[in-house]
Give the backbone structure.
Amino acid sequence: MAAQQPRIGLIDDPRLLAGAAGGLVSALAALWAFRGLPAGLGLFWLSPLPLFLAGLGFGKLALAIAVGAGGAALLAVTPGLLPLLLWLALYGVPVLLLVAVGLRRGPRIDLTAPMALLGLWPAGLTLLASILAAGHGGLEAVLRSTVELGLAQMEAEVPATAVDQIVRLNAAALALWLAIALVVNAAAAQGFLGRRGLALAPAPRWREARLPAWYPALPALAGIAWLLTGPEDALLPLSLCLVLAVPLLLQGLAAMHTRLVRHSARLPLLILFYVLILVFSLPGALVLVVLGLLEQYGRRNPPANM
């Protein structure tokens, strides 16, 4: 009599276990930050890492389970919907979208659509915030009151012109922070899984990522709208232009690393460039955007795009 094969129940499915564990760990890291506990900011930065580990190691179903488990955990232990919505908007939904579009072509990771999402998702959040702020004086009024409240809590005296500058760049700064957090955690998760032979797909060449050919038209159109809009309504198109330019900036950083990869003084030059970018933020960002565009459209044999 042949021995019966052991049945594998639902609870033994590694996708379920990995998804539930990843979602709960991510929610715990976010909750730690929401409660203001020590090292909360660092843990909040790492909150997407368990989600990427579940998605890049066990697939899209495991990631969907992770987002559901993490959302349910936050809903159960936090008052109101704000912590849940914040976690979903910053990490849960964008990680789900990035992994889904990145793995849509089978056994390899395509970075073209995920690169575009790093700008499209924050732009969508900016539009949503503008709609929600319409009943409270508009987006500029809400951002200004938020910035002034934050400065008051830090007991910092900032001139009115500096406050205006912070308000104008607030959306772009948040979009850049979100893009860097997602990219760094995705790369860390892929590297961790790859070294252990658990990754679903081989690591892509991150520095060769290219945006879709149509993407640069979006920040250009937003910039034109900003130039044509009156000062009282200029913040939204300006914010959209800057937010949509973030993937171009990241592509410029990748191009800078690629061009210096074989240079003998690569490390000192990279340190110098990063210092200059930090000191001259806006001009440095503009140079990176231009470099990214030149790398994409100036190459004789550019990679194929969507």
Observations:
- The mean pLDDT is 84.
- The CA atoms of residues 19 and 66 lie 4 Å apart.
- The radius of gyration is 21 Å.
- The chain has 13 helices and no strands.
